[in-house]
Amino acid sequence: MIGTLQTIGEHWLHSFTVEMTRYLIGAAGIALLYWLLRRWTAPRRIQQRTATMADRRRELTLSVQTIAVFGVVDLIAFALIAGGIITVAHDFNPGLIALQLVALVIAHDAWFYWMHRGLHLRALFRRAHAAHHQSRTPTSWASYAFAPIEAVFEALYVPIALLILSLFGPMYPLAVFIFLGHQIARNAIGHSGHELAWSGFTRSPWTGWLTTTTHHDLHHSEGRYNFGLYFTWWDRWMGTEHPKYHARFESVASRKALAGETARA
C-alpha cells in the first residue's frame, strides 16, 4: 500500500513538474518576448485597457492550481499505460508521428469547442468557467487560469485521446510531446492581448482557418462568441463566430500598419 501511494505520488510530482515547466516557458516566454519587443508589439495591443499586476497574480495562482489538477487526471494515463491498455511505441517513425500529431491537434480543437460551449451553459458557467472569464483583458499567464471543474474537463482529453488513438497502434511519445508544446504555445499567444498576424490573415484561404489572438480576445471581452481553440472551423459551422471578428481584427492590423508608417516618417 505504501509503495503504491509512493508510486502515485511520484507520478503526480513528475506530471506537475513537467507541466509547470511547460507553462512557465509558454506564459513567461511570451510575456518576456513581448516586453523585449514592446516598441513593435505595443501598437498591436487589442484592448485599450491593460491588465494589472493583481490580474496577473490571480491568473498565475489559478494556473498553478490547474496544473496540480492536471497531475491528478494524468494518473489515468499512467494507469492505462502501466496496465498495457495504452501501448507506447519505442521506434522512430516520422510518418506515424506526424499522423498522430495532426490527429491529436484536430481532435483537441473539436473537444475544446464543444466542452467550451458546454461550460457556458448557465448550469455550469458560474461553478466551472467564470474564474477564467475574470480575465476580461487576458495575459499569457491566463493560459491555465481555470476553476478545478474546468481543469478536469480540460485534462481529460489527453487520456481519452491516447486511449482512442492506441486502438489503431502504439502511441509515439514524441507526438504527444510536440502536441503539448503546441497547445501551450497557442494558448499563451491566444491570451497575450496583442495581435501579431498581418492584415488580410483572417480572410485568406491559406490562413483564415487559423484562430488569431483577436479571435480569443473577443471571447474574453464579450463572451458569447468564438469558442474555438486552434481553428475557426467549428465557430463558422455552428454560427458562433463574432459578427465583427474580421472588422475588429483589421482595425488592429491597420493600426499596426499606420504605426509603422508613422515610425518611418
Please tell me about this protein's structure.
The structure is a single chain. With 265 residues, the chain is an all-alpha fold. Helix content is 66%, strand content 0%. The chain is built from ten helices and no strands. The radius of gyration is 19 Å and the shape is globular. The N and C termini lie far apart (73 Å).
Q: Write down the secondary-structure element order.
A: HHHHHHHHHH
> How many runs of DSSP E, i.e. beta strands?
0
How far apart, in Å, are the first and last alpha carbons? 73 Å
Rg calculated over all Cα atoms: 19 Å
Helix content: 55-70%
What is the 3D form?
globular
Q: Find the structural class using helix and strand composition.
A: mainly alpha
Average pLDDT score: 93
Strand % is: under 5%
What characterizes the major β-sheet? none
Q: Which stretches are low in confidence, meaning pLDDT under 50 for 5 or more residues running?
A: 257-265
What is the number of helical segments per DSSP (H or I, 4+ residues)?
Answer: 10
